[in-house]
Write a structure and sequence with these properties.
Length: 661
């Protein structure tokens, strides 16, 4: 095993609007036009709204603070365009403990958009719609919500987001963290059956519902829940709590829950708990649950040992379960650790793995009793059905949360032979992940104990495992490299490539420690690895998130081997003024410039060519104490030597870098 360390600060710290521009007082009433960064902060002192025929545009870098103790609201009847950038996001918040009532879209234009916005401290409490949606409320409205952070909000229904009355927002690449509600700690979709709500590639993490749906609550709504990390959520504090990760109650509306990682969710109750990963109820076959990894969810914390369905609990509904890996979940007594099929539920399951769940893989219960029609599945202990097996799936590393299987796994090429073939034109595998046989080599990359979630205010580290397996009989020269993709789509390399010789039938594991400094910017990132041989390149990737700490007590978001926890440790880091060498150097076309500040300072970081002409001003404004980084893009410049110059208060320093094309 080879091990390297990679130290990164993925940060594009935004300007402090309270210092850059003069505050602008916003009085209650109708508003339109443009709010600019030079006018920021915008201090709202009454309920505001956008008329149905009007548009308000909020530019990058704007801070909007709702003041007074009146729990003010922002209602959109027309069009709101609030589009920040990764380096200059928009902030919505409140300066009082009473919070604000969030952004409320009511019959609003579908052109409304929130992008690179942070929404925090939204609080709603009241009867019916007065208690819906802590940060965002959608009534017959379908805004776009992209690359946002919604945290520390609360409501009766939908702690972060509530949608109903045929709303169909698209929620993508957004972090929804530490929100709470009675129903739907993160998101609640209610009676949105005419149009489709897309919930795509988000981190829905560490939210809490008092009753049901710690992460997502879906009632009679057409939703596409695809590619999300739904982890560390909790349904708690009610005699019968349901759905730690996802709760759905569907009639005849078609919905898809696919390609998600649903892990480490929990249901807790003094009486009974149901469905730590997913709770499903309904009277139709309209729900498809496919290609999900559902693991380490816990329904066992019931005072009376009434914990049902650690992975999935189904009550009188007939979903189709396709190619899921439901592994190492927990219930108690004799109830289904993997799946509980209850009271007339008749699911059909195919090409799936149930392994390591406790106390059973599948339990049938209720009167009339639920059933399970399983075919071409690997079920520990066995299950009657065509093509089913009872064999160790041979996962790569259960202890580190890596549930893709080895090359000689009995689950490979063992799925339903009539199913659509895998992308590599081989028979379908069992489970959520297929073994790509396109090349002689296969690459997997994953962090220890996923998902990988970092905090913005402390230095974080996690080991990353690169595994390369050569299934052929020939020896190959393999070059492994890595890069990361920022939330705005830009990429840059991580460390240096590693080249080694890999004999036929062998595997090499490379472990690298990935460290991120305090001050990294929030968002959803991609970690991408490549393994190149003469015949081609194998690629693998995973998502990770950087979130802000809890504002109430500066708790740091951390994770141990089995669960999330919040520690009260504060970072003990002292800084001096410094400008570091850019990396990589030479570069083409992206490189990262890093500097640190002993005190909050007015900073200017500028790049010059060898003749002394300014080619880019990278930073101009106030920055807080700590480590900062900014990416320089030389795509439009010729090859050559460039000088970067930092001025921070009385401190000045320069460095040289080489662009090679």
């Amino acid at each position: 095993m080879m091990k390297r360390s990679i130290f990164l600060t993925l940060v594009f710290t935004f300007l402090s609007a309270s210092i850059l521009g003069a505050d602008t007082i916003i009085y209650g009433g109708a508003h339109s036009g443009t709010w600019t960064e030079t006018g920021s902060r915008y201090l709202v002192q009454g309920d505001i709204w956008i008329e149905s025929n009007a548009t308000l545009t909020i530019e990058p870098g704007v801070t909007v603070i709702f003041q007074t103790t009146d729990n003010l609201e922002f209602t959109v009847y027309g069009t709101l365009i609030a589009e920040g950038s990764f380096s200059n996001p928009i902030l919505f918040g409140a300066d009082e403990d009473e919070g604000w009532r969030g952004i409320r879209f009511e019959d609003a234009s579908s052109s409304s958009s929130l992008k690179f916005c942070r929404l925090t401290n939204g609080i709603v409490d009241g009867a019916y719609e007065e208690g819906y949606g802590g940060a965002i409320y959608c009534e017959n409205s379908s805004p776009s919500i992209d690359n946002c952070l919604i945290s520390d909000c609360q409501a009766n229904w939908g702690g972060a987001i509530y949608t109903w009355d045929d709303s169909a927002p698209e929620i993508t690449r957004t972090i929804i963290a530490r929100n709470s509600a009675d129903y739907g700690g993160g998101i609640r979709c209610n009676s949105c059956d005419a149009n489709e709500t897309d919930i795509l590639e988000n981190f829905v993490i560490i939210n809490e519902a008092a009753v049901s749906g710690g992460g997502i609550y879906q009632y009679d709504s057409a939703t596409q829940i695809i590619g999300n990390i739904i982890s560390g959520n909790l349904a708690n504090d009610y005699p019968n709590t349901k759905g730690g990760g996802i709760y759905f109650n569907i009639g005849d509306t078609e919905s898809l829950i696919s390609k998600n990682i649903i892990s480490k969710n929990e249901v807790i109750s003094s009486l009974a708990t149901y469905g730590a990963g997913i709770y499903g109820k309904g009277d139709d076959e309209a729900v498809e649950i496919s290609y999900n990894l559902i693991y380490d969810n816990d329904a066992s914390d019931s005072a009376l040992n009434n914990g049902y369905g650690g992975g999935i609990y189904l009550h009188n509904c007939d979903p189709t379960l396709i190619s899921n890996s439901i592994v190492y979940n927990t219930a108690n007594f004799t109830h289904g650790g993997g799946i509980e099929s209850y009271y007339g539920a008749h699911p059909e399951m195919i090409n799936s793995i149930l392994w390591g769940n406790s106390p059973t893989q599948i339990t049938l219960s209720g009167n009339p009793q639920g059933t399970m029609d399983a075919t071409y599945c690997d079920i520990q202990g066995g299950w009657t059905g065509t093509g089913n097996i009872n064999s160790d799936p041979e996962f790569l590393d259960v202890s580190e949360g890596e549930f893709r299987f080895e090359y000689d796994s009995p689950c490979q090429d063992s799925g339903d032979p009539t199913s659509t073939y895998e992308p590599d034109n081989t028979r379908i595998d069992m489970g959520a992940y297929y073994y790509d046989q396109t090349l002689d080599i296969r690459l997997t990359v994953s962090p220890d104990h996923p998902p990988m979630i970092f905090s913005t205010d402390v230095q974080n580290s996690r080991d990353i495992n690169f595994r390369v397996y050569n299934k052929s009989q020939s020896t190959h020269s393999v070059t492994v490299s890595a890069k990361y993709r920022l939330p705005d789509g830009r990429t840059t390399t991580v460390g240096q490539p590693t080249t080694f010789s890999l004999a036929g039938g062998s595997m090499n594991t490379i472990e690298r420690t990935f460290t991120m400094a305090s001050g990294s910017s929030w968002g959803i990132y991609s970690f991408i690895a490549e393994a190149e041989i003469t015949a081609g390149t194998a690629i693998d990737s995973f998502l990770f998130a950087i979130v802000t700490p809890d504002p109430d007590d500066s708790r740091v978001l951390s994770m141990d081997e089995s669960q999330y926890f919040l520690s009260n440790q504060s970072p003990t880091v002292s800084y001096v003024f410094a400008l570091h060498q850019n990396t990589p150097n030479p570069f083409n076309p992206l490189t990262v410039l890093s500097y640190q500040l002993q005190n909050a300072s007015l900073v200017n970081l500028t790049v010059y060519d060898i003749s002394g002409r300014e080619v880019a001003e990278l930073v101009s404004g106030w920055r807080d104490v700590g480590v900062h980084e900014v990416t320089f893009d030389g795509s439009a410049l010729p090859s050559g030597l460039y000088v970067y110059h930092l001025k921070a208060g009385d401190f000045t320093a320069s460095g040289k870098m080489v662009l090679v094309k």
